[in-house]
Each structure stands twice: as C-alpha cells, then as structure tokens.
Design a protein that fits this description.
Helices cover 28% and strands 33% of the residues. By secondary structure, the protein is of the alpha+beta class. It contains two helices and seven strands. The model has no long low-confidence stretch (mean pLDDT 80). Bound molecules: zinc ion.
Amino acid sequence: MSDAAPKKTSGLGPNGDAVQGFIDKLGALPAGDHVVHGMVKAADAPGGLMLAHVGDCDHWVYIAASAIQKITDTGRVTCLGHSHTTADIQLKDPTSDLEMAFAGIANLHRQALAKVHSLPTRALIGDPCPPGFHLGRDQFGNLSCQPGP
Ligand SMILES: [Zn+2]
C-alpha cells in the first residue's frame, strides 16, 4: 500500500466533497415559501431591484429592498444573446392582512401554474388511447391504439 492511493472521502468520486458541500448548503437553505429565484437588475427607482423569470426579460417586477430578508447571487444566465445576473431572494414573511392576502394569492397562482406544467407529462404517462382501445403494436411493430380493452 503506497501513500499515493486516493484518499477515501465521501465515496462520491473526485468531486464528492464539492457535491456533499452543495448538498449541505441545500439543507441550510430556508425551506419557506417566500424564496424566489430569478433574473435581477437594478431598478430605475432607488431602494429596490427588478426581478424576472429566467429567460423572460420582457416582464420585470419591482421588489423593494425593505421586503427582502436575504439575497444570494447565483451567477448569470444567457438570454437571447445577452446575459443577466440571477439570484435567490428570500422575502420577509408577510405580516399584515394585506401582505398575507397577496402571498396567498401568489401561492394559488404558483400551484395553478405547476398543474398546467404537469399536464403534458401526465398525458404521456397515462394511456393516450380513447375508450375501447389500448396502446399496442401493430403488424409493423409501431405503437398505436388497437381496438380492445
Ligand atoms: Zn434578457
């Protein structure tokens, strides 16, 4: 046994320590509903920043600095030939009735969007054939809807 033998670490390969470090960091992230990830830029008005969904720099919303609990620079993304800074923004917990109403409505929208996004996947997983047919192979070996249960 020589000293050149690779040092046993996390068992995750040469980058294992970096991977484990990342996983540890994930565990340390706030689990709350008030963390948004997106592209950010300076706002025209002072005291805040502009936030947009990654890949859509046509639509920005203003986020006041006073609403932000914590912000983490997460690098840059390319976007139609240019690039934007991205960040994780942890918003402060809503406290007033009005803030809680807006947060609740935002949550409803997010759940509705998640539902829409999952629809095509669900259709692919399920049997795409109409009642009275089943998915099978025809005489040419191609998948198609065959008559029968
Ligand atoms: Zn852009």
